[in-house]
Amino acid sequence: MKSFLITLFLFVVQIFSAQEEVYANGVFNFEENKTQKIFTDHTRVRQQPNVNAQILDSLQSNQQVLILKKDETILKLGERGSNWYKVFYQKENKTSEGYVWGANLCIGYRNKNGYDFLFGISKTIDKRDKKFNQNYKQNIASVKVVEGSSLLDEVFFETGSGESLSYGTFNVESNHKLQNIDFTLKAVVSGEACGIAGYDQYILFKDKKLIALPQLMNVGDADIYHHSEEFIFPNDKGGNPNAFIFKMEEVEKDEKDREKVKRLSKTYLWNGSSYKLK
């Protein structure tokens, strides 16, 4: 009996230890000796990689920093988990260094036509699933457009849980020929495991304004289930400059390995400044 209780105790300890183990999201994995940019306004620079360490400075969004060192210490707030990074930067003609939390850095950033575009995770919020009557954590990402030190616009969108933050990209796509659009931005986050959703967020840039299109989701579970969504934009080869098309395909196999395919297509009309379903 005593042996059984000891075994049970060790088993429970292992469970709680596993639950307390903190992992860093892959999107916040930054290379040493590479430049990065601050995403979160008022990001605190600390003397040591710890939330209780002395605050040395506060950095604004779009501040460029050089990654000196990735510390092994990981901090998780909400659904965002990241290492601390030692950074070097120049501010007001003075050079400094210290530690910042990696989740306050940009996942990606681009410069186009004199504007800086920043992509990052803004926060984690609590949401409620009415179908299953339970709460869950939801990450909220955003893209900012900055001119000099001035924030011109910002759009927010969901990016799933921390499991969907294994990989991220941010690009400018100039070949979409919608009327009166300067260019299109595309922010992507995705997970590595089966059944973990990835999200594609297209954002139109026009007259210093950002316009977020409906979010696309892609998810698969081996060869049993696959759901994909995409937009078809007008381009150099043709298409209506006043419309773009949404396409969805869902493939699911039943217990007899028979495929059930569902497809959906719908058109969004674009009037040069906003969109609506046809």
Number of strands: 19
Please state the average pLDDT score. 89
Give the count of structural domains. 2
Structural class: mainly beta
Multimer state = single chain
Task: Give the number of helices.
Answer: 1
Largest sheet: 9 strands, antiparallel
- Secondary-structure element pattern, one letter each: HEEEEEEEEEEEEEEEEEEE
What portion of residues belong to β-strands?
Answer: over 45%
Q: What's the Cα radius of gyration? A: 22 Å
Q: pLDDT below 50 for ≥5 consecutive residues: which ranges? A: 1-19
Measured as a percent range, the helix fraction is under 10%
Q: Specify the overall morphology.
A: globular
C-alpha end-to-end distance: 71 Å
InterPro entries: SH3-like_bac-type
Organism: Chryseobacterium edaphi
Keywords: Signal
Signal peptide: 1-18
Architecture overview:
- The protein is mostly beta strands.
- The chain has 2 domains: 23-105, SH3 type barrels (Roll); 108-278, no CATH class.
- 7% of the residues lie in helices and 56% in strands.
- It contains 1 helix and 19 strands.
- Strands 11, 12, 13, 14, 15, 16, 17, 18 and 19 form a 9-stranded antiparallel beta sheet that branches. Strands 1-4-5-6 form a 4-stranded antiparallel beta sheet, with no helix packed on it. The chain has a 4-stranded antiparallel beta sheet with strand order 7-8-9-10, with no helix packed on it.
- The longest helix has 19 residues, at 2-20.
- The N and C termini lie far apart (71 Å).
